[in-house]
Amino acid sequence: MRVAAIDQGTTSTRCLVVEPDGTARLVASLVHAQHHPAAGRVEHDPAELLRNIRKVLAAAGKVDAIALANQGESCLAWDAVTGEALSPVIVWQDARTADALAACPAKEADRSRAICGLPLDPYFSGSKLAWLMENVPAVATAQATGRLRLGTTDAYFLDRLTGTFATDPATASRTGLLDLATGRWSQELCDLHGVPRDFLPPIRAVDAGFGTLDGVPVRVSIVDQQAALYGHGCRAPGEAKITFGTGAFLLAVAGDERPEADGLLPTIAWQRAGERPVFAVEGGVYDAGAALEWLRRLGLYTDTAELDGFTGPSALSRGLVFVPALSGLAAPYWDRKAAPLFIGMEAATGRHDMVRAALEGIALLTVGLIDAAERAGAPIPALSIDGGLSQSAYFARFLAAASGRTVNVPAMHEMTALGLAALCGRDFAALPVAMRRFAPDGSVSAEDRARFAAAVEKSRGWRA
Predict the structure, then answer these.
(1) What is the pTM of this model?
(2) Cβ(83)–Cβ(159) under 8 Å?
(3) Per-residue pLDDT, 413
(4) Would you place residue 429 in the very low, low, confident or very high pLDDT band (cuts 50, 70, 90)?
(5) Coil, strand, or helix at residue 225?
(6) How is residue 117 annotated by DSSP?
(7) Terminal CA-to-CA distance of the chain, rounded, Å?
(8) How far apart are CA 312 and CA 314, in angstroms?
(9) What's the whole-number average pLDDT of the chain?
(10) Which of 83, 85, 84, 11 is nearest to 42 (CA)?
């Protein structure tokens, strides 16, 4: 089976063709615009995203199946009759609802965690959809006439491409509107946010089928991070991966019961047709690749080759620390007011020192996620990583040292695409995969980790 795996991400839309032997070939990649209409706001043009999906899919040629990965929490509203978008896509990074959520009574935050497992944070879709209901007149008009559709980007793409208005349990679990106990939309949470439940998409298993596009079945639709988890071959409790893209996202398989993790999130990893949902523990860093891109724009480096080859003592051990909190801090802090900062600079500090400190800061934020995930469930002796930063040997080596765990970097790093193809019916978990392994070497001390933890507290307390 040849699968066209479409990864519709935060910065680009990519299509890879996955062959029956598990090899993947990138056939097209298109970057889309990022719109920032005001401070804290991040939007995409839904029509541009849809056009790009069609374009990259056309480059795939003849395939037997199509699978789609989505951004997760990014969402919008559209007209059920014409299919036209009634709003921009509000991106998962967008923080426009932060103040409104901060004003919610503690009992509402407690009910959110009890029902869907998620805090009241603007990261998730529920408050974004509520904002559209309250602030976009066309959305209110569509509701009044019964023509409204609300959902994450996958539901919009599927509706427009195949005529199937649906989402999957993993994506639904990222909205803040799903009852994890029943697998259905929660009326209580919809009422809490002010989102009309009747206009949300039906929820179906990840591989239940989502219609056809030009005669080719769309077999799978799921969040990109969950697709990558599956692509890494993680199936048993304690098996974990981290994807380093715009943000950094850890998922650790927890089993068939909802996990509880202080500061981290219970989420649905996947649910296949006729099976119980598989749960995972999730934690994220808002700014990974985004922090490095910021440094690149500032002129601190120009080429990704500069993210490797560092020698001598780490920046951290020399007292130079960077906290990558350009969008605040996600799990386990959930602090949108935290600020990015450098500490420990001196006259001799150069731009490469600052880039090195940034790599180390991203790694150390993820170490906190790993430790918390392990406390929530099975031991995590090793990690699989993918995404742009995984290609830096220095970064992978430092992560191994800082976490005290072996870090595996598969040579085939298109794990989202591989997971999509595997979910279509060809599981590649048993195939031998070439990979680089980085063992912990003790080079990151307890004092180093304490120094970083102190910097994080300064990041969080800068407004005081």
Answers:
(1) 0.88
(2) yes
(3) 74
(4) low
(5) helix
(6) S
(7) 58
(8) 7
(9) 92
(10) 11
Rounded CA separation 241/232 (Å): 7
Question: Quick one: which of 372, 379, 369, 368 has its CA closest to 238?
Answer: 379
Residue with token string 């206009």:
199
Counts for the chain of helices (H) and strands (E), in that order: 14, 21
Report the Cα 283 to chain-centroid distance in Å. 9
Burial degree of 134 (CB within 10 A; 0-12, 13-18, 19+): exposed
Q: CB–CB of 251/282 below 8 Å? A: yes
pLDDT digits (tens, 9 = 90+) for 313-329: 999 999 999 999 998 99
Looking at the domain 3-224, which fold is it? Nucleotidyltransferase; domain 5 (3.30.420)
Question: 48 and 32 in contact (C-beta within 8 Å)?
Answer: yes
Length of the chain: 464
Confidence of residue 433 (pLDDT cuts 50, 70, 90): low
The answer to whether 139 touches 196, Cβ cutoff 8 Å, is no
How do the domains of the chain map onto residue ranges? 3-224
Task: State the Cα–Cα distance between residues 242 and 99, nearest whole angstrom.
Answer: 30
Give the pLDDT confidence of 99-127 residue by residue, as tens digits.
999 999 999 999 999 999 999 999 899 99
Q: For the chain, what percentages of helix, strand and coil (3-state, to nearest 5) are there?
A: 35, 25, 40
pLDDT tens string 141-187: 999 999 999 999 999 999 999 999 999 999 999 999 999 999 999 99
Token pair of 392 as six digits: 């830096």
Query: Which DSSP letter does residue 281 get?
Result: E
Do 331 and 123 contact (CB within 8 A), yes or no?
Answer: no
DSSP states of 35-54 as a string? B-SSTT--EE-HHHHHHHHH
φ and ψ at 240, to 5 degrees? -140, 155
In angstroms, rounded to a whole number, what is the distance separating the alpha carbons of residues 292 and 300? 9
Q: Which residue has the tokens 């490095």?
A: 292
Rounded CA gap, 8 and 266, in Å? 24
What the block records as the tokens of 452 is: 């970083």
Report CA 246 to chain centroid distance, whole Å. Answer: 8
Work out whether the CA dihedral 391, 247, 439, 357 comes out positive or negative: positive
